[in-house]
Each structure stands twice: as C-alpha cells, then as structure tokens.
Specification:
Layout: H1 2-45, H2 49-59, H3 61-76, H4 83-92, H5 95-119, H6 125-139, H7 146-154, H8 161-169, H9 175-185, H10 187-206, H11 210-236, H12 247-259, H13 261-264, E1 267-270, H14 272-275, E2 281-285, H15 292-297, E3 306-310, H16 312-315, H17 319-325, E4 329-331, H18 339-349, E5 354-356, H19 376-382, E6 385-392, H20 394-397, E7 410-418, H21 420-424, H22 428-439, E8 476-479, E9 482-485, E10 491-493, H23 507-520, E11 527-537, E12 541-552, E13 556-561, E14 565-569, E15 577-579, E16 583-588, E17 591-597, H24 603-623
Parallel strand pairs: 1-7, 2-5, 2-6, 3-4, 3-5
Antiparallel strand pairs: 6-7, 8-9, 9-10, 11-12, 11-17, 12-13, 13-14, 15-16, 16-17
Helix pairs in contact: 1-2, 1-3, 2-3, 3-5, 4-5, 4-10, 5-8, 5-9, 5-10, 6-8, 7-8, 7-9, 10-11, 19-22
C-alpha cells in the first residue's frame, strides 16, 4: 500500500499537467463551438455561403485559428471525425489556404499526442487495444520502417488520424521524422475533403444540378481510393504480390466480410487443432453452400490460405487479374491436369496453407457428393499435414436450388489432422476413403436447428424435378414452404426443420427416390434437348454464343451446333456441374461450355443425376 501511495505522489505532477492540458483543450473547444461552429453550421444548413464567409472574416485570424484548433482537437480526441471541419474549411477559404490550415491543425494535434505519449508516458487502455490491432495489421504489410507503416495506416480511411499518431508516438522514431510523416501522410485525405467543400460551395453559388455535385464527390473519392491502392500495392505490399499476403487478397476478403457480415453472427468455429499448426497445410472441406470459402476464411489460420477454385474464375477479364494478384489457384472441373498440383506445391513451399473442396461442386440434396477425383496419392506425395474440416448448417442457409440465402446457424470444426507419417502408413485408396468418410455430412439428419423462413421451398422444383406421387417429369412448382405437382395436385410442405410433413420426409429421400427411378432405366437412357450455349474460350479466350443440341446415352455425351460437333465418352465424364433451373456445364479441349435448355430448365438436375449414376455404376464394376 505504501509503495502504491509513493508511486501516485511521484506521478502527481504529470497527472496534474495532463489534466490541465485536457481542460484547456476542452475549454477552447467549447468556446469555439459556441462562438464559431454553431453559427457556421446554421448558416451552412441554410446554404448561406456569404454569411458563413462573413462570419469567418469577422473573426479575422480567429477564423483561421478555429480551423486549426478544431482539427487538432479531433486528433487528440480520436473519436471526433475530421471530415466536418475539413469540408467546412473548403467551403469557406480558397483551396490552398484550407489545405494549409487543416494540415497545421493535424501537425498541432500530432505534436500534443507526441508530448503526451513520449514525455508524460500517457496511456489509455483503449489506445493500447488499438495499438495491438495496428501492430497485427502492420505485421502483414512487410513495411521496411515505422515511417512506411504510418504512411500505410494514413492511407486507410477506416483508421482515425489520432489513433495512428498515438501508435506512431509509441514507436522508436524521432519527432522530426514523425511530424514530417504525419504532415505529408494526411494530405490526400484532407485534399479530398477540402475539394468536396470547395465543390459544394461552387455548386451552391452557381445553382448547378445536384447530381453533378454528387458525381464530382464520387470521382474525388474514387481518385483517393486509386491513389491509396496504387501506393499500397506498389510499395507496401510489393514483396507479397501474387500471394495470399497481397493487397488484392486483403481487399477481396475485406469486401467478402462486409457482404457476409450477418452470417458471422450465426457462425461458430472449433479450430484449436488448426491454431496449433506451425507449418503450411492442406485443408480439405465439404462443400454444402457457395459461402463455404467465407466460413473457412474465418478460422484461425496462422497465415492467409490460398484457395483452389474453378478455372472459370481465374480466366475471365478482371477476374483473371484479381485472382492472379491474390494468389488464387485454379483447376478445370473434373478435368485431369498437373497444373493445379504444381500450383499447390509451390504455394505450400512458400509457407501458405491451401484450401481444397474435394467434391468439386455444391451438394444438391444436403449430402456430400462422391469425391470423383481422388487426391490421396497427391496428398501423400506433397508431404504436408492434411487438415479435415466439416461445415454443418450451411446447406439450408444457402442451398444450391434456392436463389435467396438466409442467416442460419453454421458450425465449422476441425475433424482430424493427418500427418505425413500417417499418410505414408496407408494406401492412397485408404486415405481417399478416410477423407470421404470424415467429411461426409447429411443436412437432413440434423433436426435441432429451427428455421423460421416462410419460403423455404422456393426453387426446390429445380432440384426435385419428378413428382414423387405420380412420377410426372417437370410438373413441380413451389411457393412459400410448399412444393406442388401440376399433374396430380399432390402437395408437400417443409416444416421448421426442413422435413416434409408427408412421405418422403426429407429432400435427400426424395432425391434418392428419383435416383432409383433413373437407375432402373439407366440401360435405356437417352436424354436430348435443344440448347442455347455460351462458350468461354480456353485460357480467357473470346466468349461466343451459339445454338445446338445435347444428347446423353450410357456411352457418350454429344453436342452438335452449326459451329462445332463433339462427343465425350461417359467414361471420361466423372460428373456434370450444373446450376439448378438454369444450365449444366463441362470443359472440352480447354473451352468451357454452358448449356441452357430451351425448354424445361428443371431437366439440368436430371442430366447431372444421370451422369452421377453412370459414374457410380462404373465405380462398382471397377471394384468387382
């Protein structure tokens, strides 16, 4: 107790001095808020530019001082936004003067912060938390000095200037370098804010269209974003280009996390075995919904993982550049090739984890698809840990057959970590079997979650294309939680756990019934439909459109159009990717074909199921 009392007495002068400084700042703020800002704000609301200008002119140098001191105040009190005073100064003064006043205010605030942190050892617990966040952020930028880190942070508009200055003051940097960095680092943001104010003043005075003002402001913001992006990409992230540490990767997942923000509230993760990994690893995961890559990204990876995706997303214009700079790996769906394996090995050796969805496509009925391209032999040769992850609950949140998605409970968990030594002790076939068994999920077997949506069945007819009561094809339609047959009038209703109130009780059971119907007629299979086709050229080549006819029998898939004709043996067609109620797709000689049926688009699910059954039959014959 005595030691604590002496410590308090020793620090008393510093505490008093800090309190005095803060009181002075608050008093100045209150004074100017009363005499300057409130009248100025009222004039601004009335669009009285002349009155606002006269107000500042009447204050003379005090008007200039107002801008500088308020800008400094928002630096010290980090939660006060700077944009208001910057835009206001742009409204009131010529651009060069407004820029100078705001920059002087920033330098004054930064100097006060430097004094508080360096001389008085001033600390706030909330600032310490911010500093730890900035440390984690800057650690991935490969910055070569504190100065570069500060520039990078100033160019990120989501971080207040004051927080950056508190952070910079706590680092080993001289006052001169610190102040120069602050003075120049804030200029782009101040320029944009001042120009917005100047533009607003010009449009108010000249009574020009409001839409033109909005366009100018948007263009100024876009110009600032481009400047920030180019600086970060060419300087801050130069050494990490084309890797998951790149700026493009960070930007992509920043957008993804904003887009999926609501889903994070319903996401639970069990990843302790993953956090214990110190070396790069291969992560294999089941694939129930489009958002699975987001769920995996929220796990505690020691480094950003690279993703293996459909080559389509890495060869289209714009997407091609983004994917390359973000270190995304690609593979043609259900097409053999060594390029993907080489990319995986290169990425692992660079120290990054790699995420693979071995099913290669979304689950149609909530159960894991068969892994038609076994990877056990490759995983054994690579010699890195294999992390098996299961995602549960994602299927009903965003199923393949429904365009709308919901925020539903999703659970992600590490099921098993297989070491290289363990892989070498088993055959490739045994490893493939273990992977398939570990990752298998059946969404319909889980009845605990309760889904309150009132349109759970919307789009389900694009998967359940045959009536389970009368057997009619393409007669199902859905509305709300009901799916009904137009031919016989039979109706099935989904309850709060996505189970039908009548037989069959689940979506997967209905799908099994359809599969059995198709299986009984498989020897006589003959599907045919006229299609309008979109063809994406090999390696990002020119896209073209045409019309043709597709046919499928037990021996081959055939496509015939005015431009081209080809056949693919079904033995070379392990699976057929499709979008419910829209199209099915496949690669031929490096080109990607999207086939859109002219009639009954529900049938694409039937084509995909028929190819699955043919592949299943081949696998059974091979194991005999």
């Amino acid at each position: 107790m005595g030691k604590e009392s002496r410590s308090v007495r020793q620090k008393a002068p510093e505490i008093i001095l800090i309190a005095v400084i803060l009181c002075i700042i608050i008093a100045l703020f209150c004074f100017f808020l009363k005499d300057i800002l409130i009248p100025f704000l009222k004039l601004e609301f009335r669009n009285d530019v002349d009155g606002a200008r006269d107000l500042l002119k009447d204050r003379g140098l005090l008007g200039f001082l107002t801008v500088t001191l308020v800008e400094a105040l928002q630096m010290v009190v980090i939660f006060i936004p700077a944009e208001f005073i910057q835009i206001s100064s742009g409204l009131s003064y010529p651009f060069p003067i407004a820029l100078l006043l705001c920059d002087l205010g920033v330098c004054l605030g930064a100097s006060i912060i430097f004094l508080l942190v360096r001389t008085l050892r001033y600390r706030f617990s909330i600032l310490e938390k911010r500093n730890s966040t900035l440390d984690r952020l800057s650690s991935g930028m490969h910055a070569r000095s504190v100065v570069l880190i500060l520039y990078l942070l100033f160019f990120m508009p989501i971080i207040p200037f004051g927080a950056i200055c508190y952070y910079g003051s706590s680092k080993r940097i001289s006052y001169g370098r610190y102040l120069f960095t602050v003075a120049t680092g804030v200029v782009p943001s101040i320029v944009v804010s001042n120009l917005m104010g100047a533009a607003s003043r010009a449009f108010i005075e000249r009574d020009l269209p409001f839409w033109l003002l909005i366009m100018i402001i948007v263009l100024l913001a876009a110009a600032l974003f481009c400047l920030i992006f180019l600086f970060l990409d060419r300087v801050g992230f130069r050494d990490s280009d084309r890797t998951p540490d790149s700026l493009v990767y960070a930007l992509l997942f920043f957008v993804v996390r904003i887009w999926c923000r609501g889903r994070g509230r319903h996401l639970t993760i069990e990843d302790e075995p993953l956090r214990a990994q110190s070396e790069p690893y291969l992560l294999l995961c089941n694939h129930g919904s489009f958002y699975d890559f987001y769920y995996v990204s929220e796990m505690g990876h020691p480094r950003n993982p690279a993703y293996l995706v459909n080559e389509y997303y890495t060869t289209r214009p714009i997407l091609r550049t983004l994917a390359k700079k973000a270190g995304i790996l690609s593979k043609k769906l259900f097409t053999p090739g060594i390029g993907a394996a080489a990319g995986i090995l290169r990425t692992l050796r660079a120290g990054f984890p790699v995420v693979i969805f071995p099913e290669g496509r979304l689950s149609p009925d909530g159960r894991s698809n068969p892994i038609v391209e076994p990877g056990g032999a490759l995983y054994r040769r690579l010699g890195f840990n294999l992390v098996l992850v299961k995602i549960e609950g994602a299927y009903f949140a965003s199923p393949k057959w429904r365009t709308r998605s919901y925020h539903s409970p999703v659970h992600v968990s590490v099921q098993r970590v297989i070491t290289p030594a363990e892989m070498q002790a088993m055959s490739a076939e045994a490893l493939d079997g273990l992977i398939a068994e570990t990752l298998f999920t059946d969404a319909s077997s889980v009845t605990k979650p309760v889904y309150h949506q009132k349109d759970k069945a919307e789009g389900l007819e694009n998967l359940l294309y045959r009536c389970v009561d009368c057997g009619a094809l393409y007669t199902m339609h859905s509305r709300g939680n009901r799916i009904t047959c137009r031919n016989c009038g039979a109706e099935h209703v989904l309850n709060s756990s996505y189970h039908f109130t009548t037989s069959p009780q689940t979506i997967s059971a209905w799908y099994d019934w359809m599969a059995e119907m198709e299986r009984s007629e498989l020897a006589f299979l003959k599907l045919s439909c006229s299609v309008h086709t979109t063809v994406f050229g090999a390696n990002g080549g020119k896209k073209r459109r045409e019309r043709g006819v597709c046919t499928l029998n037990p021996e081959e898939f055939t496509y015939q159009s005015d431009q081209i004709s080809f056949s693919i043996p079904t033995a070379s067609l392990p699976a057929l990717a499709f979008s419910c109620g829209k199209e099915f797709e496949l690669y031929h000689k490096g080109e990607l074909y999207y086939f859109y049926p002219d009639m009954d688009p529900q049938q694409v699910a039937r084509w995909a199921l028929a190819v699955d059954l043919l592949a299943e039959k081949r696998r059974k014959e091979e194991t005999k």
